Amino acid sequence: MIQATSETSFSAYLQTADNRINNSVPVTHIRHLLKFTNVMEKAVQYAYGATETIYNRYTDFTFIHSTSPDVYAGKIDLSLAGYWKYEVYEVVWARSGEVAPSVTVDSQYAPATETDVLRKLDGYGLVTGLVTKGKMYVAEKSGIEEVTYSQNGKGVQSITIIEAGVGYTSAPTIVISGGGNPITTATATCTVSGGAINTVTITDSGNGYTSTPTVTIGGGGSTTVGRLVASIKETNYIYAG
Question: Which of 52, 56, 69, 227 is most exposed, with the fewest beta carbons within 10 Å of its own?
Fold first, then answer.
């Protein structure tokens, strides 16, 4: 099990070599894409390690906590404490077993999810399959573990970038729908950088939500549409000494 602390970067030591799928290329041309799923909120985040070192018996990963997750830079948002599930997918840079000329982990050359299929040519990563999975426990940050609770905030409190998308030429529109029968509907805007959604700003949190609304992204000229998740949970802190 991976142990981590909310709002904090962490390391993980995972056994991947025993289940290696492609044995025809050297480890220098293998990376691993991790899928993190929060058990309670069902929020999903993907990330390659900010660093990844493959040894004979295990692989050493480091991940960076960030409120602006980035699949390719190893940045994930660990604001949600509790249990997560993780899945580790092998990604290989090769063609028909031949070594690719280089390994580039970015939005053009590296798959962002386990189902992404890029051009099957030299220089493009290909997901070969699942090599391991398990659980991760994210503890509350020191000093708040006994003094926090969440309640329905009635309005949209946050919007998390789960997948930043690929190929955006302009900022897409964001539509927030559902969530019961809100009195006023929340609105939001976003910015893009390097063809991916970079930031999301809530321009009106709305009011009267009784369940989590759906966030839909439209336009922007993307080749792969991003995915955002809203939350109406409001975290409250009570200092208990």
Answer: 56
In this structure, which topology does domain 2-139 adopt according to CATH?
Immunoglobulin-like (2.60.40)
pLDDT digits (tens, 9 = 90+) for 127-156: 999 999 999 999 987 654 444 544 555 789
3-class secondary structure for 3-34? EEECCCCEEEEECCHHHCCCCCCCHHHEEEEE
pLDDT in tens, 39-79: 988 899 999 999 999 888 889 999 999 999 999 999 999 88
Three-state DSSP string of 65-106: ECCCCECCCCEECCCCCEEEEEEEEEEEEEECCEECCCCCCC
Q: How do the domains of the chain map onto residue ranges? A: 2-139, 148-237
3-state helix, strand, coil in the chain (%, to 5): 0, 50, 50
Taking the whole predicted model, whether its pTM rises above 0.85 is answered as no
Contacts of 232 (CB under 8 A, 6+ apart): 152, 153, 154, 155, 156, 157, 179, 209, 211, 212, 213
Which amino acid, residue 85?
K
